[in-house]
C-alpha cells in the first residue's frame, strides 16, 4: 500500500480497535505497524487480534508489521486500609516487607530486590512520580523515607527507582511465557521493557532464537547511559518517553530523544518515538497544537516511526488519530526545511561495499530524474542502509522473504513488495520495473535505480547498482542475459 509519506505510524490495539472492520480502517487510514500490548488482555485475545491483522494483510495484499510489547517487571506497593491515604510534604513514610495493610505511615513494598539496591539519599517515585520519597535509612527489608512531594497514595500504585540499577532481569516469568507465545504466533517485532544492560537483550535473544526482531524500549536512566552498547545488540529502538519523563527531569527528555534518534539512524536501525503523542485525542476529535508540534518534531528529527498508545487502543477517535498523524507527516515532509534538516544530519561513516552502493544510489536519485530506488534484499539490511540515507525518492524493498517484508514495514520510506526468488540480474531489473509501475511510483517513460547482490538470495552481498528504464522492451533490448 503506497503511502504519501516516509515516516511510519504504529498503533496500539485495544478495546476500541479489536474488530476486523476497525483494524482494516486503521490500516487504510495509515497504520503500518500494529502493537499488541502484552500488559493487557489474555493470550487468547492477543491471538485473535493477530489473526485479524493477518487477514487484513491478506485481503489488502499489503505487508503489515506486528509488534508484541512485553510488560516487563512491575514494581508496585501493596494495599492500604481504606484503599488510599494522603501523604504530606515533610512527613515520614516507611516501606517494608510486612504484608499488613498500609496506612499514612507505611505500606508493603513486596520487592526485596529494591531494598537490596537502596542507599540513603535515593529517590523513590510512586504513581508515575506524583509522589516523591527520599530514603533516609534503609536495610534488607525496609526503607525509612521523607515525603518530598506529597499527594494521595493508593492500592498497587507503581514504584520507580531512578537513582540505582535494580538487580532485576528485564524478563519476568510472565514475560518469558508471553515471549514464547508471541514468537510461536509469528509476530515480527518483540519489544523489551525494563532494559538496563546488554545482558537483558542477550537473554531475550537466546529465547527468541531468530523468530522475531528485538526492539529495546529505552525507559530507564541506565539504558540511556549505556545506549550505544544496547543499540549494538538491538534490531530497533523505542524511545519510551513516558517512563523516561518519570525517572529523569522532564526537560532532559527532548534532548535525549534527539540524540537517540540520530544514533539509531547512524546505525541503520529503526527507531520509534512513543508515548502521549496525541493524548488529547483519547477524548477529543481534535489534537492540541502542542501535540501536533510534538509529532512534527519527531518527524523533523528523522524518526522511522511515531506511535499511538491509548489514542488507538482505548480512545473514542482511533481512526481520526491515525489520520491526524498521517496529515502531519505529509505536511512536514513537504516542507523544504525538512529535506535540509535530514540532509544536514546525514552522518554515515560506512566502509563496506553495501554502504557505498546505497550512498551512490541516493546521490544518483537526487541529482537526476530518478523516480525510485528499488533494492533487492533477503535479510533487510540493504533496505535499512538505504533508509539510513533518507533519499528524496521512494524506496521499494523487494524480497522473497515474507518476514523481511513485514519487519521493513517499520522502516522509514520502505514500501515492501514480495517477489519470487531470482537467479539472474535481468529478472531483477524486470521485476523492479514492474513493481515501480504497479505501485504508481513510475511510468514506462521513467527511470529507477536498482541495487542488488550477486549471487542472488545470499544475505550481505549487495554489490550492483543499475540505472534502468521502466519500459520492459528497453530492458530486454539493452540488458544481457
Task: Give an account of the 3D structure.
This protein is α/β, with parallel strands linked by helices and 481 residues long. The protein folds into three domains: 8-73 and 169-339, Alpha-Beta Barrel (TIM Barrel), CATH 3.20.20; 84-160, PK beta-barrel domain-like (M1 Pyruvate Kinase, Domain 3), CATH 2.40.33.10; 353-478, Pyruvate kinase, C-terminal domain (Pyruvate Kinase, Chain: A, domain 1, 3-Layer(aba) Sandwich). Helix content is 38%, strand content 23%. The chain contains 18 helices and 21 strands. The chain has an eight-stranded parallel β-barrel with strand order 1-2-3-12-13-14-15-16, surrounded by eight helices. Strands 6-5-9-8-7-11 form a six-stranded mixed sheet, with no helix packed on it. α1 links the parallel β1 and β2 (33-37). α1 (20-29) crosses α2. The longest helix has 18 residues, at 43-60. The mean pLDDT is 94.
Task: Spell out the blueprint of helices and strands.
Layout: E1 8-12, H1 20-29, E2 33-37, H2 43-60, E3 65-69, E4 84-87, E5 92-96, E6 106-108, H3 112-117, E7 123-126, E8 131-139, E9 142-149, E10 151-154, E11 159-160, H4 173-185, E12 189-192, H5 198-208, E13 213-218, H6 221-225, H7 227-232, E14 236-240, H8 241-247, H9 253-266, E15 271-274, H10 289-300, E16 305-308, H11 310-313, H12 318-333, H13 336-344, H14 353-367, E17 370-376, H15 381-389, E18 395-399, H16 402-408, E19 414-418, H17 425-438, E20 447-453, E21 462-469, H18 472-478
Parallel strand pairs: 1-2, 1-16, 2-3, 3-12, 5-6, 12-13, 13-14, 14-15, 15-16, 17-18, 17-20, 18-19
Antiparallel strand pairs: 4-10, 5-9, 7-8, 7-11, 8-9, 20-21
